[in-house]
Design goal:
Layout: E1 14-18, H1 23-36, E2 40-43, E3 61-65, E4 84-87, H2 93-103, E5 107-108, H3 120-125, E6 139-146, E7 151-153, E8 187-195, E9 197-198, E10 202-210, H4 216-228, E11 236-240, H5 241-260, H6 264-278, E12 283-291, H7 293-307, E13 312-316, H8 318-330, H9 335-353, H10 361-369, E14 385-389, E15 391-395, H11 398-414, E16 420-425, E17 430-440, H12 444-463, E18 468-470, H13 476-479, H14 485-497
Parallel strand pairs: 1-3, 2-3
Antiparallel strand pairs: 4-8, 5-9, 6-7, 6-8, 10-12, 10-13, 11-12, 11-16, 14-17, 15-17, 15-18, 16-17
Length: 512
């Protein structure tokens, strides 16, 4: 039985698929796998695009599809004074957002720019980055079926669900075991506590446009200092021109087609003209500021004072976008007004991400680009879209980060590919560069070129003393060093928690 293809173009054969629907089902599955020596490869909803989706690291595993485990276990207890959701791995961004909108609209959560149907637990365990910060910091109190078949609850959740500490105190007592199950293969996480956020009284987005690429290092350093000082509390995204234009392209085309009657023959040319007007800059940053009205006004003024000499500053919120759209749409017969109305139509769902509203727009862009706008976002792996991520962790150093991304861009260009790059200032001390390659995976030569380029990018990163913060399934042999004391210790932990090596063999661990 073969695994379905995925956007990386690299997949492994699987032997079977199991779909447990509760903790007991996972326990029974692990017990049977231990008895039969059958490797298991657990996925939440399987939408880990660009990193391998549902494809195992090693061939011959049974795929454990946890998407049917979709319960919010404490739904009656969630409130502004108890802002934690205890969720199973099949709970998606869309499901949690719909639940909060109906039951507790004063709460929101740290959403990612990926699709509605992506798993919150799955993304968090692989250290995904949301718009408010790293998702790894949102998850605690895990319930895990280890490879040895035992059920482990971390933190104070070990005291039992009835304990007043179970769902509120993230640290527990003694060594913190939660981290063992992030980017690991020691067990199957069946539920976890996920932090929710109060919806702020006032929230705005800050868009910054840097036209002079030579100022990128200085631009990063200024934004990093604003992050350290917590003037800009959200993750600050700094995207290159390729990423910005790709993010806007589908929304622009849809506006031109549906609202302006532009036909298919002229759509590409008209869309390019619009992007040249609204997205001419080499780097564009988007971040968020929230708080009381006075706090937000003061923070915006501080950003303008610090960054105004480097980049164009624009303050955006739903009211401004709606007003601007209504005016510009009315005058859409004029090219400049039409271009900016199209840009606002494309930006609206992206701005919603900063306020906790998930969207499929990023995947819709890819479906449109590869001629499959008729498909749902969760069907991306069924298209010819080729997507590989090579995303290094970075120090909070503007010159270093700029040099690394510029070097990666040159390598991609040498392979006749474009690098889509976003530098994310995610904490007060760290950044990551989320970079990807796009290619047509129905073209064998294009896929081979992309793989060579991805390997060259990873070699370049390592030569600079760096490593990716999140690895594709096909990269494990390159990121795990069997001679390293660190990975040797990880292997010893694997033997203690999964003595038969049945959980995701080879994933972030030394293979047998």
């Amino acid at each position: 039985m073969n695994v379905a293809g995925n956007v990386t173009g690299i997949s492994q054969e699987i032997s079977d698929v199991e779909r447990p629907d509760d903790l007991a089902g996972v326990q029974q599955l692990v017990a049977r796998a231990r008895r039969d020596k059958t490797p298991l490869y657990p996925v939440s909803t399987g939408l880990n695009w660009g990193y391998g989706s549902v494809s195992p690291v090693c061939a011959g595993a049974t795929l454990v599809d946890l998407s049917g485990m979709r319960r919010i276990l404490n739904e009656s207890e969630i409130s502004v004074t108890n802002p934690v959701a205890v969720i199973e791995p099949g709970v998606t961004q869309q499901q949690l957002h719909a639940f909060l909108s109906k039951r507790c609209p004063s709460l929101t959560f740290n959403v990612t720019g990926s699709a509605l149907d992506t798993s919150i637990i799955g993304n968090s365990l692989d250290r995904g980055v949301g718009y408010m910060g790293p998702r790894r910091e949102d998850l605690f109190g895990l319930e895990v079926v280890t490879g040895a078949g035992t059920v482990l609850q971390t933190g104070f959740r070990r005291l039992g669900e009835a304990s007043p500490l179970a769902h509120c105190h993230p640290y527990g007592l003694g060594p913190m075991l939660d981290g063992l199950f992030f980017q690991g293969n020691f067990g199957i996480v069946t539920s976890a506590c996920f932090k929710l956020l109060p919806r702020p009284a006032c929230q705005v987005g800050i868009s910054l446009a840097l036209s002079d690429a030579s100022l990128l290092a200085q631009f990063i350093d200024v934004l990093a200092q604003l992050k350290r000082e917590r003037v800009m509390g959200s993750v600050t995204h700094i995207a290159n021109k390729a990423r910005t234009r790709a993010s806007l392209a589908y929304g622009v085309a849809r506006y031109l087609e549906e609202k302006c009657g532009v036909g298919a023959a002229a759509l590409g040319r008209e869309g390019e003209r619009v992007l040249n007007i609204v997205a001419p800059d080499e780097w564009t940053s988007l971040g968020g500021i929230s708080g009381t009205k006075r706090q937000v006004d003061a923070a915006v003024a501080e950003v303008r004072a610090r960054v105004g000499g480097l980049a164009r500053v624009m303050e955006i919120d739903d009211a401004k976008l709606s007003l601007g759209y209504n005016i510009l749409h009315w005058f859409r017969a004029f090219p400049w007004a039409r271009a900016n109305a199209a840009a606002i139509a494309a930006v609206r769902p992206l701005n919603g991400l900063a306020t906790g509203v998930p969207t499929d727009v990023a995947i819709a862009n890819l479906l449109w680009r590869f001629g499959r706008s008729d498909l749902l976002a969760r069907e991306l792996d069924n298209t010819n879209c080729g997507l590989m991520f090579v995303s290094p962790a970075l120090p909070m150093d503007g010159r270093f980060a700029a040099d690394v991304v510029q070097g990666m861009t040159a390598i991609a260009r040498d392979h006749q590919l474009e690098l889509y790059a976003t530098i994310n200032i995610e904490t007060e001390s760290s950044m990551v560069a989320v970079t990807n390659l796009l290619f047509d995976r129905s073209d064998a030569k294009a896929m081979e070129r992309a793989k060579r380029c991805a390997d060259a990018l990873h070699a370049f990163i390592k030569a600079r003393g760096l490593e990716v913060y999140r690895a594709r399934a096909d990269m494990m042999a390159d990121v795990v060093d069997p001679s390293s004391d660190y990975w040797k210790m990880v292997r010893q932990l694997k033997l203690a928690l999964d003595p038969d090596n049945i959980i995701a063999p080879g994933r972030y661990n030394i293979p047998e």
